[in-house]
Structure formats: C-alpha cells, structure tokens
Design goal:
By secondary structure, the chain is mainly beta. The protein folds into 6 domains: about 210 residues, no CATH class; about 120 residues, no CATH class; about 90 residues, Immunoglobulin-like, CATH 2.60.40; about 90 residues, Immunoglobulin-like (Sandwich), CATH 2.60.40; about 90 residues, Sandwich (Immunoglobulin-like), CATH 2.60.40; about 90 residues, Immunoglobulin-like. It is built from 5 helices and 46 strands. Strand 22 and strand 23 form a beta hairpin. The relative contact order is 0.07.
C-alpha cells in the first residue's frame, strides 16, 4: 500500500514508497498533460468555422470549437526516467549493505475520487458560449478525461491568436484522491453539532353570555445551534531520517483532518429544522395548548492510529501549454488547427430581409407593396406599420447567383394617386425601400456653432422646393432659430419623389441690431445645419515656457479689432501649470482682418512681476508665453575616468546666475558605481552672451569619512570630465 508522506521528487514527479515492499514505488505527476494518441501526437483539435451564406434568419453561423483529452499519468519516457533513477539508487543501497540487486517496480495508486475543471473565460461573456466536458476522470490508468469549449465568433478569433502564443488561455484544475497508509501517528478528529428548536403556544378564549369576549395568547419560540470540533494529533512519527519533510507532512495531515471535519460540518449545516407551521386557534376549540421540541444531534468521532488507511487529496493543475510540455512538447500546430468554411453548395440559399422606412404615424401613406422576383418565383409583401418586416427566401440558382429584381408601389391616404418605384436589380441581403424621401419632403434645420450669448439674436431660414416636371408647385416656408429654439422641422406632402435639391437662405439678426443675409444655397440633406454668422475663427493656443518651480502663473491678454465691421474681441486667459494650454477663439467676418495683438505678465513665487509688452500676431497660431529664452545649452557630465574602487559616490553641483534678468538655476547630479552613465544638464539662457556657470564636484572616498572637493570654478565648457583631484 502507498504510504505518505512523499519519499522523493524526480523532475516534476512525486515518488511515494510502499508500506511493505521496499522495491515497490508509486510515481505521481505534479501536473496534468495532454493525452498522446497512438501516433505520439497530443489529442487536441481546434476548429474555426464560418458559414459563408447566412441562414433563413439572415444570420450566419460562425465560431470555434476546441476539444482535447487530458491525462494524469506518466508518459513512457517519464516512467523510464523514474525507473532508471530509482534502480540506480536501489543498486547503490544494496551494494552498501552487501545485498544482491533487486529490480524496482512502479505501481499505480488506488484512485477513489477525481474531478477536472477548466479555467477560462466565463460562459455568457461573448467569448465562450459553453464549457463542455470535465467531470470525472476515468480513475484508471492515465485518468483520461475529455474536455471541450464552444466559442463565439469573437472567442474563436481571440483563442486562435492566443493559442499561437507561449501560454494558452485555458487552465486545467484537477482534484484527485487516492488511498494511502499513514505512518505511525495517532490523530483524533471530532465534531459535535446540535440543532435545537422548541415552540410553545397557549390560547384561551372566554365567551361569557354577558360581557365582552376575551382571548389570551402565550407564545414562546426558541432556536439554537451549537457546533464544536477539533483536530488533535497525539503522536507523530519519527522524522529523524528526513527532518526537512516534518513541517510539510504535519501541515498536510492537520489540513486533511480539518477537511474531513469541514465536510461533516457542511452536511450538519444543511440539516435545517423547518419552521413550525401548526399554530394559531382551532375552530370550535376554546382552549389550545401546543408544546413542540425538535433536537438534531450529529457527531463525528474518528481515531486514526498506526497503519490506518485514509483517502489522500492532491490538486494538480496547469495551463494548457504547460500540460502540453508535460506530454512531450511535440505540437506542430498545423496538425491541430483547422479553418473550415461552411459553404457546401447543397445548403446555399438566397435570403433577403425586406424593410420599409415609411413614416406611418404622419398619416400620409396607406401602404407600400414591394414585389421581389427571382427566376420564376414572384412574391409580394404589403407594409402598413413600423413593425412589418418580411423575408424572401429561395434556393440559389447557379445561373443567377444572388441577383434578384424588385419594384414597389406607394399608396396614399385620401388620394387615388400612387407612386411607383421602377424595377431594379440588386444582390443586397438587406433591402430597405426608401419611402420617406419618395412620399414627402422632410428637412430638420439645426443651429450649429452660433454665438447666441454675445452676437446673434435670431436666424431666419427661408426654404423653398419646386419640381414642375413631377407636378409639384413651389412650396415655401420660413423657420426661426433662436437660443431657446435651436431646431425646427419643415415637412411638405408633395405626393411625389424628392428628386431635386431644396433652396435655403439664412438671415442673421445680430444683437447690435444689424441684419446680415447670406447667399441662397441648395442642399439635398435631410438635416440642414446653420452655422455661425462669421466666416471663420482665429484660434490661438498659448503654451507655457519656463519652469513653474519659479513661476506662480502667466496671465495673457488678447486684443482683436475689426473697425470696418464694428467688431472687437478682448479676452484674457491664465496658465498656472505646465499642463495648461488655453485656446482663445476669435470670430472673424468674411472680410475681416487676421491680425491681432497680445501681451502677458509673469508672476513669480518670490513676489516679482515681469510684464511683456504688446506683440503682434497674424492668423491661427500656437504662441509661447512665460519665461522666454534665447538659447538652450546642453552640458554633458562624464565619469569615464573615475576609479570606483576608491569612491563611494560623486556629487556634482552646478550653478548659473543672470543678475540682470534676475534669473538663477541650480542643479545637483549624483554618480555611483552602479549609476555612472553620462548626465545631461539643459541650461536655458535668457541672454545667449552670458554662458558662464559655476561647477563643483565632491568626491566621497571609500573606507574613510573624507572627501575631496574640486571647485567651485567658473566655465563655459559644454562638457565636464570628472577626475579625482590630486
């Protein structure tokens, strides 16, 4: 009989000894694997399929299917490897003891329970439609189990790509139990569970001939549940031969004892006392008294002593890729991944979904009759409400393919006039009859980017439509747009197809009292957007320059003047961090100037103010404001010549000052044996003629609390080479 704890570990395989036969061993893999078929290849299939032709409902069938066999046992190569290692050790032990060699044998554990589960995307997430398989392994031989996944279209694409990566998005989790003999221990596992409920009720009804009726009720109800248990190990085996296994074995034995107790505790919790339903008065009985008591007691009292046999649990698990590696790693993907088009000619069919977008609620159209023709098949559909949808289905004629013909007749209410859509040939799988533009004119007029707050009071939009060739006399209307009515709809029942563009003329009434009419234009769009009265805008983006470690804020003022149109814009913005980049949008008349001017003020954290006078600009621009520099100097600090066996670190101090501009910059750089790469100091100059800066290097020596100092010294060099001063 297999005895615990484990005896040894070879590669990823756990070795157990036999309790009686010193030459018998049990080898159990630590991870499950893909089963290998007779050809030595993993039993794995990935099918990605798609139906080229949609089904009767207009939808195609597409997705993926993954199926594979898992095994929990040794391959022949693994078994040979384990047997060889164990035989070599057994032969050495026999020689040391002067005994003849004996062949070692590998036995199979006695499996009692097992389950397998897949860890992947949950069902219903749009990736995995259904997880199939799993359940219980065979509990014989290699414990073979079959698992499968049904994938959606998106899931098939995801898994198809992911399965080409080193790790596949499928995990295998097994729970296995086998019989094992425990060594010389004494363990007591006990649980006492009591569930108690009592109910007492007394009802006295007094109905005297004279006086009022009285009812006296007394009720008491009591529910109690108590549970207590423990796992006590009285005696442990001797671990002197393998002290390293003591803690792990003790933890596993105690954990197993608690799992046994937990299973019994769950069963006790499930045994619930139902509520008492017999209560209250009984017709015709004046005095009722009930007393009910229910008590359920569940005890577990198990003693394990030397030579006891118990079910022992293990939980092998792996991703699919590592399971493959456990099976030998031979996985030529072209043998297992198949793309299958579902395009058998026998199943091909023509399926057309027919819809009509008429506005039935307006009461203009009575019905629309649509007729479809394919080969010698003719079918008509009558639309009278929004919910009407029809399908035209026929088997494919190879001579025609998917091409069919259709026409439509529109019938109007309160009129004998009809409108015919001539016969048209198409191969569309979804046919929509555009009745809305055939039976009437409908235009939605929307206000676009209009400055209602400062500039425009209202917009009058004059619209007109005429089609003499189809008997439609001129129709006109004027719609009003304002801040509180930014959309209007123009509808006309013309009982004819809309074949020509409509005309529109917007007239802007400004808050200043001025009126401006735009030229008449044409459009065929169902939605007409009336934009701003201004021809365009000048967009200015202000970008901060300088460091906000010194600056508190930048305040910008913009001034734009158009005297010819009596139009002026003044606006201010502020920048308070490096992330701020405000935009000023200046509306401009068609013939207005593009030039503007701006100025800014810089406020420093030390209380100073710097004002920059008016600057001129032209057109949309991105403008830098703040601390403006004439030049940026890149200074490189190199530590290539330093002997780090003598140094702990080097501190470089750089200092630049421009007193005339009240501008100063200080930076420190630290070099260590592990961080000795070149350092770069970017120095911004307000005056490119003032390039001198101060440099000092402090060298901290090893083995003593002393340092050598080089500097400070003034230089304009753009490269500093560090050397320990003599």
């Amino acid at each position: 009989m297999l005895i615990i704890p484990p005896h040894d570990r070879i590669d990823d395989i756990t070795i157990y000894k036999d309790s009686d036969d010193p030459w018998m061993f049990y080898a159990i893999a630590n991870i499950p694997r893909l089963r290998l078929g007779p050809d030595g290849k993993p039993v794995f299939t990935f099918l990605k399929y798609a139906e080229v032709d949609p089904g009767p409902d207009g939808k195609g069938v597409s997705g993926g299917y993954v199926q594979f066999d898992t095994a929990f046992g040794l391959t022949s190569d693994q078994a040979a490897r384990v047997r060889g290692v164990l035989q070599e050790r057994a032969d050495k032990a026999a020689r040391d003891q002067g005994l003849p060699n004996q062949p070692v044998r590998l036995g199979d554990p006695t499996w009692t329970e097992g389950s397998i589960a897949l860890v992947t995307f949950q069902e219903g997430t749009g990736i995995v439609d259904k997880v199939m398989g799993g359940g219980t392994p065979s509990l014989l031989g290699d414990n073979i189990a079959v698992s499968a996944l049904q994938l959606s279209e998106a899931g098939a694409q995801l898994f198809w790509a992911a399965c080409q990566m080193p790790t596949m998005p499928i995990g295998i989790v097994m729970k296995m139990k086998f019989l094992a003999r425990i060594p010389s221990i004494e363990m007591h596992v006990w649980l006492q569970s009591e569930n108690f409920a009592s109910y007492y009720e007394k009802i006295d009804r007094d109905e005297p001939f004279w006086g009022d009726d009285t009812v006296t009720q007394t009720r008491r109800e009591d529910f109690r549940r108590t549970n207590s248990g423990d796992v006590n190990v009285v005696r442990w085996p001797d671990f002197s031969a393998d002290p390293s296994s003591e803690k792990k074995f003790k933890d596993e034995i105690v954990e197993w004892g608690w799992s046994l107790l937990q299973d019994h505790f769950k069963a006790a919790l499930a045994d619930v006392i139902p509520p008492f339903t017999e209560r209250g008065e009984i017709d015709g009985i004046e005095h009722v008294e009930r007393s009910l008591i229910v008590s359920k007691v569940s005890d577990l009292d198990v003693y394990f002593k030397q030579d006891s046999i118990i079910p022992w649990s293990i939980n092998p698990q792996a991703t699919l890729q590592s399971a493959l590696a456990a099976g030998g790693g031979r996985f030529p993907k072209e043998d297992f991944f198949k793309e299958i088009p579902l395009n058998d000619a026998f199943f091909k069919r023509l399926s057309v979904k027919v819809d009509c977008n008429a506005s039935w609620s307006e009461g203009i159209i009575h019905s629309v009759v649509v007729t479809l023709r394919y080969a010698d098949k003719i079918e008509s559909f009558t639309f009278q409400k929004d919910e009407d949808t029809f399908f035209f289905r026929r088997l494919i004629d190879p001579a025609l393919g998917r091409t069919y013909r259709y026409d439509a007749v529109i019938h109007f209410k309160a009129s004998t006039r009809t409108l015919t859509i001539p016969e048209t040939e198409t191969d569309k799988a979804a046919l929509v009859i555009p009745v809305s533009r055939l039976a009437g004119l409908a235009v939605t007029v929307l206000a676009g980017d209009i400055d209602w707050e400062k500039t425009v009071q209202q917009v009058q939009v004059a619209l007109s439509y005429e089609d003499a060739a189809n008997g439609v006399a001129e129709r006109t209307t004027t719609l009003l747009l304002a801040a509180d009515s930014k959309s209007q709809v123009w509808k006309e029942q013309i009982l004819a197809a809309v074949t020509k563009p409509y005309r529109y003329t917007p007239t802007y009434v400004l808050k200043s009292g001025r009126t401006l009419a735009r030229p008449t234009a044409q459009s065929t769009n169902d939605t007409l957007i009336i934009n701003d009265v201004f021809g365009e805008r000048i967009n200015l983006t202000f970008v901060p320059a300088g460091s906000f470690t010194r600056m508190a804020g930048i305040f910008v003022e913009v001034d734009y003047q158009d005297a010819a149109n009596d139009h002026r814009v003044k606006q201010t913005v502020q920048l308070l961090s490096e992330k701020d980049s405000p935009v000023v949008s200046i509306p401009r008349w068609d013939n207005g100037p593009t030039k503007f001017r701006y100025r800014f003020r810089v406020s420093y954290k030390d209380g100073r103010l710097q004002e920059v006078d008016w600057k001129d600009g032209d057109g949309s621009s991105s403008l830098a404001v703040g601390e403006l520099f004439e030049e940026t100097v890149e200074i490189t600090i190199k530590a290539d010549l330093l002997d780090w066996s003598l140094l702990r670190f080097v501190l470089c101090k750089l200092d630049y000052s421009d007193d005339a501009a009240n501008y100063r910059v200080r930076d420190d750089f630290v070099f260590t044996p592990t961080q000795s790469a070149d350092k770069l100091w970017s120095l911004n100059l307000k005056d490119r003629k003032k390039r001198a800066y101060s440099f000092q290097a402090d060298y901290a020596l090893k083995g003593q609390n002393t340092k050598k100092i080089d500097g400070p010294r003034t230089t304009e060099d753009e490269m500093i080479i560090l050397e320990i001063p003599v």
